[in-house]
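Reviewers of the previous submission asked for a worked example of the structure-prediction workflow described in the proposal, so we include one complete record here. The input consisted solely of the amino acid sequence. No template or homolog information was supplied to the procedure at any stage.
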Amino acid sequence: MAAKAFILIETAVGKTQDVLAALQKVPGVKSADPVTGPYDLIVVAEGADLNAIGNMVAGKIHPIPGITRTVTCLTVKLT
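From that input alone, the workflow returned the following structure tokens.
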């Protein structure tokens, strides 16, 4: 089952453009957009399952220089 997440990202001052460029190269990132408010970027990510999303965030997104904080919101199906 495919998994989808919204990842809210705070960046260091002056690093948003660099982080955005790096995020756009990460496999599984479907979109990355600068936003106003308490976060600097919102990413839509997809993976094969929840573990794939977790591995992407921990292994590919967290190491990007300039990221200071992330909040990952996994989507759920309501029945």
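Strands lie at 3-11, 29-34, 41-47, 67-74. We consider this example representative of the routine output the project will generate in years two and three.
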